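@channel sequence for tomorrow's demo:
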Amino acid sequence: KINSKKFLLNYKNFEIFKYILKIYNAKKNIIITNSHLKNHIPKYNNTELFFVKKNNSMFQTILESSKLFNNYKKYLLTSCDCHGEFNLNELQKISKKNIDLCMFGFQFTNLQKNLNNAHTQIMLKNNMVSNIKVKAKFDKNLLGHAGFFWINSNKVFSYLEDFLRSKYYKSLEREIIIDDYFRFIINNKLINASFIKLKNYIHIGSLVEYQEYEYWQKYFK
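structure tokens (generated this afternoon):
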């Protein structure tokens, strides 16, 4: 039976959020989630919990916990449903440079190409992110935008109020996502953003993708 709470989905014999925390092996973990899930999150070593009001938007969660982010720099911000392999030495080099944000790009799988839901894609110039196409039609020349980021400077989330006042924000007639915010601050040259290409990117973003994962797991047994 598939659990309706995505972070509790079984992935490689772990609840998926525990698997993600395990592979990144950070010195400190902070889980930010909706307050109505307070009694559903299992305890995990070296982990603090931060609760926000119930919502269905990662951007709204970021907005409500922005004061928390202002206390930190040089950290990985990730969703509960995705991970990918990358060269740690490459990230360490980026973290020492005057770069505010590192995004992670991936090559689309055949399943992702054929799903009806559009993906965010990153546009590159001189090894830097020059623009973001949010929920756009698949473009074979672009990398997909993975659901996690390396925050190298605490100024990354200092433009939230500017974004809320912007024409771009007011023009959106769909759910606002974190990709919209990153598009705004990159297009307005408020930050600079680098990228790393991932290997073996996994994203359990929908029921279809989880069923596909389960099918191939059983097939290769």
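heads up for whoever presents: The first strand starts at residue 10 and ends at 11.
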